[in-house]
């Protein structure tokens, strides 16, 4: 195959052979390799067919991705990931707000921010201000009772360790959670916002700069340079509008169960599978 050749990777809980044949026809593939019930590689695949293939895959409930032929997970050196609704299943700030009985109010702002309808920094300040007076101990309750790793996260993190790929968590959420996740799962790097606490209670303010989309982008660029990596050696994954700039700097930008604006602009959209779907993209 030439350097420009691509493979269409198809994933779902279960793949139907007739459906795979139709996807192969749409992308011009002549070889269908079904590796197991939920994973197939179709080659050679024409990326120009992306719109037609994606429309068909959406109807089938399949995840699809056009990947450079022969690309391996070990070819990468860094995975950069969002935290809330990406590495973990919840939006931490919404669950913190639930401790005050105002989850609905904060969650509505979060949703609009993630869709790109609100400025992230302004929306974060507004949401954090609503948390003023909450006992700091409530954060531990949220972490202990509500923080769960997303399905497939363990597989992704294990693959990173196996192949020497660094993992960096960059979150518009809070260091209280990122630092605990880093210690718990062995992440290489973690960055987030710091909630101000006085006399054991949240003040409703953030300490220092807010980690928004621009800072996420900057952190990716800095770590990429520090590790001596080329852009194509970086994977970035996120779900909200504040992740778009970092996705754009990665060799492979992945929208994970993401908002429409992110799915439309990312290189790959994973809508069905868990984070293990990222590992399975590559041979």
From TrEMBL:
CC annotations in GO: cytoplasm
Entries under NCBIfam families matching the protein: HAD-SF-IB, serB
Family, similarity comment: Belongs to the HAD-like hydrolase superfamily. SerB family.
Organism: Paludibacterium denitrificans
EC number: 3.1.3.3
GO biological process: one example: L-serine biosynthetic process
Keyword RNA-binding recorded: no
Known cofactor(s): Mg(2+)
Molecular function GO labels: L-phosphoserine phosphatase activity; magnesium ion binding
Keywords: Amino-acid biosynthesis, Hydrolase, Magnesium, Metal-binding, Serine biosynthesis
Database matches in Gene3D superfamilies: HAD superfamily/HAD-like (3.40.50.1000)
InterPro entries documented for this protein: DUF4072 (IPR025138), HAD-like_SerB (IPR050582), HAD-like_sf (IPR036412), HAD_sf (IPR023214), PSP (IPR004469)
Segments forming domain DUF4072: 8-53
Active-site annotation: 82, 84
Catalytic activity: O-phospho-L-serine + H2O = L-serine + phosphate; O-phospho-D-serine + H2O = D-serine + phosphate
Pathway note: Amino-acid biosynthesis; L-serine biosynthesis; L-serine from 3-phospho-D-glycerate: step 3/3
Name of the protein in its database record: Phosphoserine phosphatase
């Amino acid at each position: 195959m030439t350097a420009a050749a691509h493979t269409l990777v198809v994933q779902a809980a279960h793949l139907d052979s007739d459906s795979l044949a139709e996807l192969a026809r749409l992308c011009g593939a002549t070889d269908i390799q079904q590796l197991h019930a939920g994973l197939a590689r179709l080659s050679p695949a024409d990326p120009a067919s992306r719109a037609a293939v994606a429309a068909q895959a959406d109807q089938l409930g399949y995840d699809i991705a056009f990947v450079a032929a022969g690309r391996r997970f070990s070819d990468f050196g860094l995975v950069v990931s969002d935290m809330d609704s990406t590495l973990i299943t919840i939006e931490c700030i919404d669950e913190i707000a639930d401790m005050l009985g105002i989850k609905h109010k904060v969650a509505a702002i979060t949703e609009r921010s993630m869709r790109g309808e609100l400025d992230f920094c302004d929306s974060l300040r507004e949401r954090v201000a609503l948390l003023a007076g909450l006992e700091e101990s409530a954060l531990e309750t949220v972490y202990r009772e509500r923080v769960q790793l997303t399905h497939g996260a363990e597989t992704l993190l294990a693959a990173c360790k196996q192949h020497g790929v660094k993992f960096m968590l960059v979150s518009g959420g809070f260091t209280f959670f990122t630092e605990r996740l880093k210690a718990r799962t062995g992440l290489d790097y973690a960055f987030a916002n710091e909630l101000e606490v006085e006399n054991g209670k949240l003040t409703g303010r953030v300490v220092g700069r807010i980690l928004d989309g621009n800072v996420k982008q900057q952190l990716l660029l800095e770590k990429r340079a520090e590790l001596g990596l080329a852009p194509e050696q970086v994977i970035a994954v996120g779900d909200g509008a504040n992740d778009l700039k970092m996705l754009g700097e990665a060799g492979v930008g992945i929208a994970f169960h993401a908002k429409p604006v992110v799915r439309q602009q990312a290189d790959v959209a994973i809508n069905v599978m868990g984070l293990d779907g990222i590992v399975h993209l590559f041979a």
